[in-house]
Design brief:
The chain is mostly beta strands and about 400 residues long. The protein contains four helices and 22 strands.
Length: about 400
């Protein structure tokens, strides 16, 4: 094919329409087929096959009518030579047939197919055109469902995904989205700092995400673990009063009363490997484990599970959550609830509040505030453990547990 280099490009081009002459150039679409000068035609252009590697393709060539059967396409773009008769080169890129038809004529439809990616250079009489490379990409997030199966795809995306180099990231594709929004702080009592839990609203409902927790600032005895990154594991539903991790059929009691705490809470431990789920379906989430210690700061970030966890640009903005000093679970009683921690441990405040939670008294702090024992908390509040530990903290005893160094993998 003179002046054209094409590799692995099969082309079957079928043109249907009505040729026009100057006498009918202004005729409206849908004019009668008997109108003078509007002769219907159907013609196909096919090439001869050649073998390159293991792929058989077809090399397009022109032919047929005066001026080439595609003479209406002259001057339309880089694939066609200005006023050059016949088919001189292949289509440079994928163009929906409807768009191409409208660009040529309202009464001309073009259909084509190809099986490989073209690399072509057309040297034409009037000008040189060059398309260095093209791709036809699949992927994306448009979903089709059928029974238990789901297919996600987008045809014709331009290099979907992310390219990174140094501190720069370029995202491509029709459905490009930034990182998942970060978790947020909860409302009400749950927003208060706690000793052994960090609380958040993961957000991103309907999206499979993972939550990464970085141990940002720890007390001096645990400072060697600063910078450690762990993941939030599978949430479990816990009875707020009894601490049962599998709510019984009759539900968690006692019966809920207006203004009282929810009957259940969602909690999750930390783990070394990424865990993905729709965390948005959980709502308020209390995260705990031996890595969660008093007097510390943690950084929580979300990541879409379709993204590369090794690429920092894939993570959400950080949410910083702190924990209160050891034994300080709340501040003084304030009208109808225990106020936020006030940095001091007091028998009439912290010890009393924890004891109230043991009795499940009305107005007692939520479990995530009162549960401090053991190293990996057990979702239960008892006199011999939790109440006693807070009393010891009031006496000046230090945090008694081994902390992050003994966490299970």
């Amino acid at each position: 094919m003179n002046g054209v280099e094409a590799t692995k490009r099969p082309l079957t081009l079928r043109v249907k329409g009505r040729l026009r002459d100057k006498a009918t150039e202004g005729s409206p679409i849908g004019a009668a087929a008997t109108s003078p000068g509007r002769q219907p035609f159907t013609q196909s252009v096919k090439g001869e096959p050649w073998e390159e590697g293991a792929t058989t393709c077809h090399q397009p060539r022109g032919g047929g009518r005066k001026g080439g059967i595609l003479s209406p396409l002259r001057g339309l773009g880089s694939g066609w030579g200005p006023r050059t008769p016949g088919l001189r080169t292949a289509l440079p890129s994928i163009v929906p047939s409807g768009l191409l038809a409208r660009a040529i004529s309202p009464s001309l439809a073009v259909q084509y197919s190809l099986c490989a990616v073209p690399t072509l250079h057309a040297s034409l009489a009037a000008a040189d055109y060059e398309a260095k490379w093209h791709t036809i990409d699949g992927g994306g997030v448009m979903k089709a469902n059928g029974g238990v199966y789901e297919v996600s795809s987008t045809i014709g995306q331009h290099d979907a995904g992310k390219l990174t180099g140094g501190v720069y990231t370029v995202s491509g594709g029709f459905w490009v989205m930034g990182p998942a929004p970060p978790p947020t702080k909860p409302d009400g009592e749950a927003v208060y700092d706690k000793n052994r839990y960090i609380s958040m609203v993961p957000g991103n409902p309907g999206l499979q995400t993972a939550l990464r927790v970085t141990l940002t600032s720890l007390p001096s005895e645990f400072s060697i673990y600063e910078g450690t990154q762990v993941w939030v594991g599978e949430p479990v539903e816990i009875c707020e009063n009894s601490g049962q991790s599998t709510p019984p059929p009759e539900g968690c009691g006692p019966a809920w009363v207006p203004g009282g705490p929810a009957l259940t809470m969602w909690s999750a431990n930390l783990q070394a490997t990424q865990y993905c789920q729709d965390f948005g379906s959980v709502g308020l989430l209390h995260v705990t484990d031996c890595e969660i210690v008093p007097g510390a700061i943690y950084t929580v970030q979300a990541i879409d599970c379709t993204c590369d966890p090794g690429n920092e640009a894939s993570y959400s903005d950080p949410l910083l959550i702190s924990t209160s000093p050891w034994g300080n679970i709340c501040g003084p009683w304030d009208v109808d609830h225990w106020s936020p921690p006030d940095t001091s441990v007091d028998v009439t405040v912290d010890v009393t509040a924890c004891l109230e939670k043991f009795k499940n008294a009305f107005g007692a702090p939520i479990k995530a505030r009162a549960d401090v024992d053991p190293n990996t908390v057990d979702w239960k509040v008892n006199i011999s453990t939790d109440v006693t530990q807070i009393l010891d903290a009031f006496k000046g005893q230090l945090y008694p547990f081994a902390g992050p160094g003994t966490c299970p993998p």
